[in-house]
Structure prediction request, 227 residues.
Amino acid sequence: MREKEAKILMDKLREDYNSLASSFSRTRDRLWTEMKFLFNETQVNEKVLDLGCGNGRFSQYFESNNYTGVDFSERMIEEAKARFPDKKFLIADAISLPFPENSFDKVYSIALLHHIPHQKYRLQVFQEIKRVLKPGGRVAITVWDIKKGKIFYLKNIFCRPFGLRDTFLKRQKYYYIFAKGELSFLAKKAGLEIIKEGVVKEKRRSNLYLIAIKSIDKKSKKSKICP
Prediction:
């Protein structure tokens, strides 16, 4: 896939979520309890970034934290603010976050990256996550473990100029089918240290997940200690 096509797809996806925000939000009331283990490491008063927060439902896991949710869809952010008026939500793009370096103790990205076309932009998301994480900070990422989507892909491969795992599902929205180990490949390339990766399943869902940290720079740590 060429970069020009990727940008067109991202613009279309934003338009899709803006137009479907209310109906989409109504189907996303329930927390995915099978993923609760990803949130267990968060400590009281830590600064948390929810990247691709949608209607803000996962903010309920962070009642004792300094929480910020961001999404590139203006209408989804409106939904989030209406549902959780006591939480902080901002319109922002995951490939260019409006935060300084070392801002957050934890970053969560639930079901976002499979919407990002082109490996350049997926890597850029990882690089932005690393940039805004504090040294020693942790990130948890999930993407759909899409298998049924391959059937749709095989029927349509010859009529569109995209890559081998680029496809359209669910009201013709773009999805990228992640291969096993691809999340850790991107995380390592961005300079993150892998803690754990695997698959989390529920009866109707299957998601790949990754937990990684931003390593503490030993040289900078030493320079702070020594005169």
About this structure: The chain has one domain: 3-225. Residues 3-225 form a domain with the Rossmann fold fold (CATH 3.40.50.150). The first strand starts at residue 47 and ends at 51.
